């Protein structure tokens, strides 16, 4: 049994940079303990955990490649051992499926290799990681899938990415349906154009201005615009919000 009135724990994939890092730091500021994952850059992952630990929070960084479904059983075991050794617990409270990769190829140039890579990280990985970790999530906990405004409209060069984010929003509803028996809520948060290194960054000044002009607030989003919002959902204040898509994009394409 996990202790009552315990500190909440969130597991965030891709918590070493950009939006995931912001979610981790903002959650820690709200008193939530953090397990974050990195893929290619262990130093950045550990630096985020150190920043949280140095500021009175508690965080651990683990390696995870969300395209490697064959490693997910081992990762779930690692999380289970970590929960016991660091928190004397069997469960964590919130899962944020944030890790993702971009696409920059027109349909005519999209190879099967590019297609499979994006599917594996942005959709298949989310499905099977959630499946493998679900027994470690507290009943009454929450899952948040990071989608994209591109799930709602189309631009050239991101067909597979955008279609998969739409699929992820559909999957969010199916997760919510099946995990409802354990009162686990599942929502998706869809960022607009956020100024991170995603897909190589947001380009030169004129491109950035064009992207900024696409939303009603007239600016590029910052990682903290999304991170603070997602962290704010990790509480009982959102207790009746379930199976929803919430866009954080400053009113993009309205
Ligand atoms: N930025 C935007 O404009 C925007 C807009 C809409 C939606 N989103 C979504 O927001 C999420 C985060 O994007 P971001 O802008 O923060 O991206 P980012 O700055 O590029 O950071 C990506 C994060 O994901 C991790 N990652 C990449 N490939 C991975 C893999 N195969 N396995 C596990 N982790 C992996 C990276 O870890 P390493 O560095 O260690 O490899 C990093 O922590 C993504 O799902 C993205 O689709 C972003």
UniProtKB/TrEMBL annotation:
Sample GO molecular function, one term: oxidoreductase activity
UniProt xrefs under Pfam families: adh_short_C2
Keywords: Oxidoreductase
Family note: Belongs to the short-chain dehydrogenases/reductases (SDR) family.
Protein name as it appears in the record: SDR family oxidoreductase
């Amino acid at each position: 049994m996990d202790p009552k009135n315990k500190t909440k724990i969130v597991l965030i994939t891709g918590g070493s940079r950009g939006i995931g890092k912001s979610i981790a730091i903002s959650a820690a500021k709200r008193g939530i303990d953090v397990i974050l994952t990195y893929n290619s850059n262990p130093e950045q992952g550990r630096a985020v955990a150190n920043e949280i630990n140095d500021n009175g929070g508690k965080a651990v960084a683990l390696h995870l490649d969300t395209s490697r479904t064959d490693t997910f059983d081992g990762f779930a075991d690692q999380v289970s051992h970590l929960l016991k050794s660091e928190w004397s617990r069997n469960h964590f409270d919130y899962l944020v499926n944030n890790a993702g990769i971009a696409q920059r190829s027109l349909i005519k140039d999209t190879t099967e290799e590019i297609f499979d890579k994006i599917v594996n990280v942005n959709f298949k990985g989310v499905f099977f990681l959630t499946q493998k970790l679900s027994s470690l999530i507290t009943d009454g906990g929450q899952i948040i899938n990071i989608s994209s405004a591109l799930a709602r409209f189309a631009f050239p060069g991101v067909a597979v990415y955008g279609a998969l984010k739409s699929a992820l929003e559909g999957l969010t509803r199916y997760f919510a349906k099946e995990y409802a028996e354990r009162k686990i809520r599942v929502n998706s948060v869809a960022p607009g154009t956020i100024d991170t290194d995603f897909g190589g960054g947001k380009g030169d000044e004129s491109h950035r201005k064009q992207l900024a002009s696409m939303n009603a607030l007239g600016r590029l989003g910052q990682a903290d615009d999304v991170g603070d919002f997602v962290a704010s959902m990790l509480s009982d204040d959102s207790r009746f919000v379930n199976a929803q898509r919430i866009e954080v994009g400053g009113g993009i394409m309205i």
